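chain and backbone:
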Amino acid sequence: MAANLSTLIETDQLQTLLEENAELVLLDCRFDLFDISLGRRLYNQGHICTAQYVDLNQDLSAAIQPGITGRHPLPTRQSFTQTARAWGISDHTPVVAYDADNGAYAARLWWMMRWLGHANVAVLNGGLALWRHQHRSISEDEQRLPEGLLSQREALTKQVDADAISTSKELMIDARDRKRYSGENEPVDPVAGHIPGAICMPFTENMADGKFKSRASLSAQYSQAGLSANDTPVCYCGSGVTATHHILSLKHAGYPEPALYPGSWSEWIVQAERPIETGD
């Protein structure tokens, strides 16, 4: 049995697929920006059966180029195709990504698989926190699959660079929390503030009670922020990770494909002449 996935998968659906030994690649994306080995340590202590560990820095990002890139630059498509093949992913393989709870790191994996043209991918709604809360089984065994036969196809995603941001007339969504957006607090990057014209929509507000909000609630939230049904906003965050949470949420709510600014704020600020704003 092969699953057909798109945006989110529920815990009971994943449980059924695992019990049926469905063709599936399951990826554990837990990570912590301030303790970069924590995700791997937690994975070793217990994860969903058959899951392989994915590291944000090593697997989902290229090396930082000081003064050029942001904190989590995208690898080349060729490089990431090889990484995905090593996880056992082939052209028609269903892929499920999860992280600790809110889906922020799993959404980065979701976006990157679609960037390779792989549509059959979803994020586990509620993550490992909900899985554990429901007393579902956990394993310490590490899965290894034969290398997959994954083609590099036309991207299903959209992205823009800093030059395009400067001239874009599309609505820009900043996924960071309100204090980082306003410049009141910046715990990660050396410059505080936001890209001029962006609106603040913290990605955490896409969640309710540990899960993504319903399609109707997400749609109402974006509508209230000024998006019409056919708008294709540009999403950014600190380094191109949590911005993908908005892209996943917008797609789940039925919006057309938004664009990602992969370099995001940490790339925007490497050139001092780029304008910044502070305040609300």
